[in-house]
Amino acid sequence: MPTPTTNPLTYCGNVHPVRCFADLLRIIPGEFNEVARNAGWGRPFDLGLWLPRAALREALEPANTETLAVTLEAAGMRVATWNGFPYGVFHGEPVKTRVYRPDWSERDRLDYTLEIARLAACLGMKRAPISTLSGGFKPEDTPEKRAVYFAQLLEFAREAARLEDETGCCCELALEPEPFNTLEDEDDGVRFFEELRQRARALGLAEEARRHLGVCFDACHFSVRFRDPRRAWRRLAENGVPVPKVQVSVAPRWTQDMELEARARFFAMDEPVYLHQTYGRTGTSVQAFLDLPQAGATCTAGAKAGAEVEEWRTHFHVPVHWGEAADTTGFELRALLAEIRRDAYAGVLEVETYSFASLQAAHRRENVPLAESIARELNWLKGQMGGETRPGALPIQNAP
User: Fold this and answer.
1) CB neighbours of 389 closer than 8 A, spacing ≥ 6?
2) Looking at the structure, do residues 300 and 336 belong to the same domain, yes or no?
3) Is residue 391 part of a domain?
4) Is residue 256 part of a domain?
5) What's the number of domains the chain is made of?
6) Is residue 393 part of a domain?
7) Which of 51, 59, 362, 394 is the most buried (most CB within 10 A)?
8) CA distance 37 to 324
9) pLDDT tens-digit readout, 235-272
10) How far apart are CA 324 and CA 195, in angstroms?
11) HEC profile for 308-357?
12) Are the CB atoms for 221 and 332 separated by under 8 Å?
């Protein structure tokens, strides 16, 4: 039996629609509490928080910050990590590539992220991993934009160091590789951080960059591009790229040994809210498509290229406990988690299945409410990391 994890285990609150501060105050004793109750874990219960910019500004008003702290304490909850990727509305209307704006060439992105850091400090956090997009939308990257990415990231590191000196809160900005983003895989990450370190040394910010900048490792983002997450994990570690946060996620897949009806269901997962970057592999060749309908068009009658594809994968976060099924990338997630457990990894593990509401009824594998589904994901993760999953289990202890 593996030694139970000491990592904070949580899930990302971006699955809950939040538009204003009042929504957050309602969700903490509501949906968050319902998930904790269904999971059967003790308290305090760790949270992964996400707030759009408007709600974040409200939360930073002194009276509201105090109210938030009191609400969290009364509910027996504490914040373990923050998602700073989506800047604005994330539910109920098309998000698609809008999720990449503002990017790291725009001042609003830096200001928003620094506001998250300040709120984390106000709440008394000692360690605050903050995930964010890794630059911008890759097709729009230019050398000039990349130079601004580096400058603003190093400005964040400078301000985070100052905040830590003043408050004791160490904020760790975690750039999230994602298909069609500035960083897509581990190779991009290694090259980017090599250049980041060079620029940091030139500005006298080497220690600030080392302490406050790293990678958010979203498992299915690597799998979708046919990059083995376990191999990617090792490559980042070998090159000294910090990973303060792992997002635990699973994506759908279809292979030629599955029925054609299953392929039809795979492409029918298209929906209007989120971007579903899709990849098809034939031998060692991989085709990339910005969204699922573009890939599906190759599989229409007479489309030879689509018919020859041996395996399809798409960026659609489905519940991680579905990862036991062959038509998901769960086999790669399980291998990654085993590697993480052996590495005695000290960061946060966060389930991120934000697209639950976008799963059409035809693709649901269980007829359960959101809170129960998330609880099943958390208990599945806890089991993978060597912990008990029965109701009433002892609370997970945070790493020191």
Assistant:
1) 379, 380, 382, 383
2) no
3) no
4) no
5) 2
6) no
7) 51
8) 24
9) 999 999 999 999 999 999 999 999 999 999 999 999 99
10) 39
11) HCCEEEECCCECHHHHHCCCECHHHHHHHHHHHHHCCCCCEEEECCCCHH
12) no
Segment 138-192, tens digit of pLDDT? 999 999 999 999 999 999 999 999 999 999 999 999 999 999 999 999 999 999 9
Q: Tell me the average pLDDT of the chain.
A: 92
| 285 and 163 together in one domain | no
User: Is residue 304 domain-shared with residue 326, that is, in the same domain?
Assistant: no
In a shared domain, residues 289 and 372: no
Claim to verify: residue 174 and residue 298 sit in the same structural domain: no
Residue 277 within a domain: yes
Q: Which amino acid is at 64?
A: N
Nearest alpha-carbon partner for 324 in 365, 296, 291: 365
One domain, residues 145 and 241? yes
264 DSSP 8-state letter: H
Q: Quick check: 190 and 233 in contact, CB under 8 A?
A: no
Determine how many CB atoms are found less than 10 A away from the CB of residue 162. 11
For residue 222, count other CB atoms closer than 10 A to its CB.
28
| Report field, pTM of the whole predicted structure over 0.90 | yes
Domain span at residue 292 reads 261-315
Sequence length of the chain is: 400
Radius of gyration of the chain (CA): 20
CB atoms inside a 10 Å sphere around CB 123: 17
Alpha helices in the chain (DSSP H): 21-27, 33-39, 53-59, 62-75, 107-122, 143-167, 186-202, 206-212, 219-224, 229-238, 260-267, 292-296, 304-308, 330-342, 370-384
